[in-house]
Amino acid sequence: MTTRLALLFSVCVICSACGSHAATTPTGPVSSKAPGFVLKPPVVAPAFSLRDQDGRLTGPSEMRGHWYVVAFLYTHCPDVCPVIASNLGVALRRLPDLRVLAISVDPKGDTRASVKAFLRAHNLPARFRYVTGTRAQLAPVWARYHVAAVAGPKPIVSHTAFELLVDPRGRERVLWDAQVQASDIARDLSVLG
Question: Which CATH class is domain 3-17+33-192?
């Protein structure tokens, strides 16, 4: 198993599960002050192209030239996803060159209308792109990013929750847990930028 896969697996185990109230490790809660995992050597983020909230094809190639964060969310999430979205929204307002590429983990529930309502409810700027698709379209993307998404009792979807910082050249640089704050993102960008 490559180092990247081992790190992603570790974070998946630590940070998965919408429907629970906090990410935990075997020794307790994950600290939001914990630094991200710097990925060495950087590898190119997996490519894909899906429709965003405005119906435009969007993916990593559209983000080239900018630092961006990849996140996996769903609009009906009762706990973790709104926190991730809000924290990323704060980061976008503080860091004008940053972008977000959110990928749906709920092909049935994440309609264009529900995504637009979610973005409005969390006051997310246009630099927050939220892509959706059918399960057949999304599943290969989840697999490339080592994300698990399992539909539970409606509206719950248990899924891997992490954020991934990608540099302007399209390389994965930092892996954060689901509780990453704007200050963490700013700190890591200042070190890497």
Answer: alpha beta
Domain ranges of the chain: 3-17+33-192
**How far is the C-alpha of 67 from the C-alpha of 110, rounded, in Å?**
25
Q: How confident is the model at residue 184 (pLDDT cuts 50, 70, 90)?
A: very high
Q: Closest Cα to residue 4, out of 100, 146, 103, 140? A: 146
What H or E segment, with its residue span, contains residue 8? helix 3-15
Assign 35 a pLDDT band (cuts: 50, 70, 90). low
Supply the pLDDT for residue 77. Answer: 92
pLDDT digits (tens, 9 = 90+) for 168-179: 999 999 999 988
d(CA 6, CA 183): 26
Q: How many CA atoms lie within 13 A of 191 on its CB side?
A: 12
Q: What is 66-97 written as a DSSP string?
A: S-EEEEEE-TT-SSHHHHHHHHHHHHHHH-TT
Q: Are 18 and 158 in contact (CB under 8 A)?
A: yes
pLDDT at residue number 155: 86
Torsion of CA 27, 30, 33, 39, to 10 degrees: 100
Neighbour count for residue 81 (Cβ, 10 Å): 25
Checking if the pLDDT of 103 tops 50, the result is yes
In this structure, what are the phi and psi dihedrals at residue 60, rounded to the nearest 5 degrees?
A: -55, -35
